[in-house]
Write a structure and sequence with these properties.
Rossmann fold, 6-stranded mixed β-sheet, Elongation Factor Tu (Ef-tu), domain 3, 3 domains, disordered N terminus, globular, alpha/beta
Length: 472
């Protein structure tokens, strides 16, 4: 009983500036616990409010939240703590906030050890947190920061510090939805008794019932791990009954897409999602060399040039360099983005290498394809609406959930959005595998009848690339 009481002891969370710059609604994410904002944090927020970056926009949103909370608040109310609203929606699945927000209204006398020299803002936050521990013995004072080094310094001086966890979409990246599942060896013994099958044109359907079926989600793939085993997509789930459709096989010579054949089961699943007109959103995860971009472009070109389903293909990505930046780039928006689109150019060469007519024929085909593939910058996406387009978001693991929401909501009628990425290669500061925008959309779209996801496992680039991935 004592342990349970201490576990739910009221806490006082001291927020570092980077937490608010990362999530402007962070002050509403701590349920019944209290929040404390040191004056140095408000000063740092003020210093970062100008600019067009995501962090600057977040700072301005924080200021609006604080201004709304302080409206008509007297000095006495500020001293007693401002009540946090309990009716906030979109609280990441947490309980409504019911604590109070405290500002630093007086000088706190806290001294740091002599072994911690300097008078920086991080040290000031540490000193104020130490002082709060003495002033509020009834509460457990916790410093919350995205800065690893500040958390290390806090542990050295005896301050309990934690990372900001409330922005996590899932607890662990290992439990992220993969989009496919192997059937148990005795599956048909337990579920095949009342099975019903039928055909609609060239499509084959099965209706099965049983306890395993209730755990499936629409557009999930199921298969048997044996030669010639069934490979199917879950079309509908109602209670313990599911409707399966046999997947199309894109692995044969005559069944490729724009000359590209699937080389493994997961690639075949990806092509089924990419070519399905009933699916509006597709996310594909996988390490380098698994064919994410090539499969998407092949499916996009087939539906754009052969089937006229899309007017054009729009491709974009976050512009984060691998090494040092090369400086400003001249030219139009498309010319500025071209150096970042090396993957697009490489894959277009693969898609046009079998074109008849020699080098002239390949050059003409590449010109035709590039006229139907537009390269756009993320900086100019706000306010746009795409009609009958295939929008490809490459390197989507570097997008925040807020950026991802802004981009996916650009889709108009007839548009399909495809997100590609590898959550093991995140370059954006303060983003992790569990907080990435790509992880966010995979989890939030799971179960929607018009969305599909697949995780590619096997690299198909070359034996050198495969060995380098494992050995390096």
């Amino acid at each position: 009983m004592t342990r349970r009481r201490s576990a739910r002891q009221r806490r006082l969370f001291v927020l570092d500036t980077n937490v608010l710059m990362h999530d402007p609604a962070a002050i509403f994410r701590f349920e019944e616990h209290d929040i404390f904002l040191p004056m140095v944090v408000l000063e740092e927020l003020d210093a970062h409010k100008k600019g067009l970056s995501e962090a600057s926009r977040n700072v301005r949103q924080v200021s609006r939240f604080l201004d709304e909370l302080m409206r008509d608040a007297s000095r006495d109310k500020i001293e007693a703590g401002l009540p946090l609203p309990s009716n906030l929606t979109g609280n990441h699945g947490k309980a409504a906030s019911s604590g109070r927000l405290f500002f630093q209204t007086q000088r706190l006398s806290g001294s740091l050890p002599d072994t911690l020299p300097g008078t920086g803002n991080d040290n000031a936050i540490l000193a104020q947190t130490l002082a709060l521990q003495a002033l509020r013995p009834e509460s457990r004072v916790v410093l919350v920061s995205k800065d690893i080094n500040l958390r290390i310094k806090a542990a050295v001086v005896g301050v309990h510090a934690e990372d900001y966890f409330s922005d996590r979409t899932i607890e662990d990246a290992d439990v992220l939805y993969k989009g496919h599942e192997a059937l148990a060896p005795d599956f048909w013994d337990r579920h095949g008794k009342d099975m019903r099958s039928w055909k609609e044109g060239t499509r084959t359907f099965y209706e099965i019932s049983g306890p395993t079926v209730a755990k499936w989600t629409p557009n999930q793939f199921v298969h048997e791990d044996r030669e010639g085993g069934i490979e199917a997509m879950v079309r509908r789930v109602q209670g313990n009954t599911a409707t399966l459709e046999l997947v199309r096989d894109f692995r044969g010579e005559r069944h490729g897409v724009w000359g590209i054949r699937a080389r493994n089961r997961e690639q075949n699943y990806a092509l089924n999602l990419l070519t399905d007109p009933d699916i509006d959103f597709v996310s594909i995860l996988g390490p380098a060399g698994t064919g994410k971009t090539l499969l998407t472009l092949a499916a996009g070109l087939t539906q754009t040039l052969d089937e006229n389903r899309f007017a054009e293909i729009i491709m974009t990505r976050v512009t984060i360099p691998l090494g040092e930046d090369i400086g400003f780039l001249p030219g139009t928006e498309e010319e500025k983005m071209e150096p970042w689109m090396g993957a697009l150019m490489d894959n277009l060469e693969v898609l046009t290498q079998s074109t008849e007519g020699g080098s002239w024929g390949r050059a003409a085909t590449q010109d035709l394809l590039r006229n139907r593939i537009k390269i756009r910058s993320l900086n100019f996406m706000r306010g746009r609406t795409f009609l009958n387009r295939l929008v490809i978001l490459d390197e989507a693991q570097n997008l925040t959930p807020k950026q991802m929401r802004a981009l996916v909501t650009r889709a108009g009628p007839g548009t399909k959005v495809v997100c590609l990425g590898n959550i093991a290669q995140i370059d954006t500061p303060y983003l992790t595998e569990t907080t990435s925008g790509l992880t966010f959309v995979v989890s939030r779209f799971q179960g929607w009848a018009h969305a599909g996801h697949i995780t590619l496992m096997r690299g198909e680039r070359s034996r050198l690339a495969d060995y380098a991935t494992e050995a390096l």
